[in-house]
């Protein structure tokens, strides 16, 4: 495959990234055009046999970072894509880290290389983005967990992010009742509950009444790999690290709210 074909293959994703980064379609497309002009004009060399996608994103960010205002000022005005009001709240470098990791799907090592930083600094930026996003999407949380110590851990993590825990349920019946009474903005659910009931069944019943993002926190992830609803879009294995919970919850809420904006 020729280099031009490699580049064309990645252009839709690069344009998406540039638009989210800049806050508007016109500005994002202008940065992509500048990157392509640099390649065509010989100012930048993209290795035909290397990782073309990573090289393209690195070039785009280099052009973006070369404009001082992009690293110091709020995003420019003009039409916004769905969800941009959330991204505007992120300071520039954490916004880059968040987009590269969660939207574009780069590994931490790849994203750090694209940003020209160390893996440790990238993790710091990602953590900062998680906290900034959480402040923007704070909501009410129902925890479905039968182990008291884990429930306390989850409650403390949620409260540290600014969320309000509206209840902790230990059984299927308790979970459904609390969800009906509080209509939470997020549910953290285990699979195996205290009385032998199923967290999956509880979540299915809750989703039958209203839509809510679900994050499963379980020692039995294989029970969710069935292709049936609820799909394990957000799945955390036990034992877990608090930073993983923070990142996944913030990501789930961020994309859930953006999806609602697109549908409205």
Question: What keyword list fits this structure?
Answer:
5-stranded parallel beta sheet; alpha/beta; 264 residues; single chain; Rossmann fold; Butyryl-CoA Dehydrogenase, subunit A, domain 3
Write a concise synopsis of the structure shown.
This protein is an alpha/beta fold and 264 residues long. It has helices at 3-22, 25-40, 52-65, 84-88, 92-103, 108-115, 119-136, 148-160, 172-182, 199-207, 242-263, and strands at residues 140-144, 164-169, 186-189, 214-218, 235-237.
Describe the structure.
With 264 residues, the protein is of the alpha/beta class. The protein has 2 domains: 3-135, Butyryl-CoA Dehydrogenase, subunit A, domain 3 (Up-down Bundle), CATH 1.20.140; 138-263, Response regulator (Rossmann fold, 3-Layer(aba) Sandwich), CATH 3.40.50.2300. The protein is built from 11 helices and 5 strands, in the order H-H-H-H-H-H-H-E-H-E-H-E-H-E-E-H. It has helices spanning 3-22, 25-40, 52-65, 84-88, 92-103, 108-115, 119-136, 148-160, 172-182, 199-207, 242-263; strands spanning 140-144, 164-169, 186-189, 214-218, 235-237. It has a 5-stranded parallel sheet with strand order 2-1-3-4-5, with helices on both faces. Strand 1, helix 8 and strand 2 (164-169) form a beta-alpha-beta unit. The model is unreliable at 73-88 (pLDDT under 50).
């Amino acid at each position: 495959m020729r280099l031009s074909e490699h580049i064309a293959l990645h252009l839709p994703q690069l344009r998406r990234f540039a638009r989210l980064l800049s806050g508007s379609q016109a500005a994002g497309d202008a940065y992509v055009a500048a990157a392509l002009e640099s390649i065509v004009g010989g100012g930048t060399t993209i290795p035909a046999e290397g990782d073309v996608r990573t090289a393209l994103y690195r070039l785009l960010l280099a052009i973006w970072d070369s404009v001082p205002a992009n690293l110091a000022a709020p995003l420019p005005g003009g039409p916004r894509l769905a969800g941009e009001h959330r991204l505007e709240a992120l300071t520039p470098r954490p916004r880059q880290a968040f987009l590269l990791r969660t939207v574009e799907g780069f590994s931490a090592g790849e994203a750090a290389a694209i940003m020209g930083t160390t893996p440790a600094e990238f993790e710091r930026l990602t953590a900062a983005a998680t906290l900034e996003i959480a402040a923007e999407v704070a909501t009410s949380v129902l925890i479905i967990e039968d182990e008291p110590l884990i429930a306390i851990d989850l409650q403390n993590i949620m409260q540290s992010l600014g969320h309000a825990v509206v209840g902790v349920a230990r059984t299927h019946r308790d979970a459904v009742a609390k969800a009906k009474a509080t209509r939470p903005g997020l549910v953290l659910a285990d699979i195996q509950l205290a009385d032998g009931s199923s967290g999956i069944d509880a979540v299915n019943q809750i989703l039958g009444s209203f839509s809510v993002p679900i994050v499963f926190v379980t020692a039995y992830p294989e029970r969710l790999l069935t292709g049936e609803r609820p799909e394990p879009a957000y799945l955390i294995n036990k034992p877990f690290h608090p930073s993983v919970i923070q990142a996944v919850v913030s990501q789930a809420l961020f994309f859930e709210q953006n999806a609602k904006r697109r549908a409205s």
